[in-house]
Amino acid sequence: MSHPQKPKKKPTGDYATGYCKPPESAKWQPGKSANPSGRPKKVPTWEELVVEEAFKPVKVIVKGKEITITKVQLLLQRGYQKGIEGNAPALKTMMSQSQSAIEKVNKKAEEEEKAQPRPKINWTEEHEKLFQQMEAAVQEHNANLDTRPIASDGTPK
User: What is the pLDDT of residue 16?
Assistant: First the structure.
């Protein structure tokens, strides 16, 4: 149970300093922080350090040209290259990682698709008439097609 706060008292009397009237030297200076060192820095977790390091750029030479890619991209390229060259453990690791990544991406895409509501169509008599006209036109077109067998030279028999 909380107690109601008492209203602050107003200073009584006519004096320069005292209750609710601190001396000018004790007041906060404008533009100066009450906590100059600020909030202590957050210590990064192991996972944050790994991710930060993995996405640092590196310069590599590919086909005679210097390019900049992340360490993760370089690691993936080298892993796939070793697998292609016949290193079975590297190939197994890269295939496993690829399959896992593909499954995660597909699952996320399915979840996003489910999250988007599909618009409902109110099928009216006008829609039905248009559908029947289209269906009749397709049947007429199919009936007019030349259905004779075609010879090996591409001409109708």
Answer: 74
Nearest to 101 by CA among 80, 132, 122: 80
pTM (predicted TM-score)? 0.45
Tell me if 67 sits within 8 A of 77, measured CB to CB. Answer: no
Longest dimension (CA), the chain: 120
Q: Is 10 helix (H, G, I), strand (E, B) or coil?
A: coil
- Confidence check: pLDDT of 14 > 60: yes
- In the structure, what pLDDT confidence band is assigned to residue 32 with cuts at 50, 70 and 90? confident
- Rounded CA gap, 70 and 58, in Å? 6
> Strand pairing partners for 1?
none
Among 57, 61, 87, residue whose Cα is nearest residue 73: 57
Read off the DSSP letter of residue 26: G
- For the residues of 85-130, what is the DSSP string, one character each? TT-HHHHHHHHHHHHHHHHHHHHHHHHHHHHSPPPP----HHHHHH
Q: Do the strands 57-62 and 65-70 form a parallel or antiparallel pair, or are they unpaired?
A: antiparallel
> What is the C-alpha separation between 70 and 55, in angstroms, rounded?
5
Q: Quick one: how far is CA 93 from the chain centroid? A: 25
Within 13 Å and on the Cβ side, how many CA atoms surround 115?
6
At residue 7, the pLDDT reads 75
In the beta sheet, which residues pair with residue 61?
Answer: 66
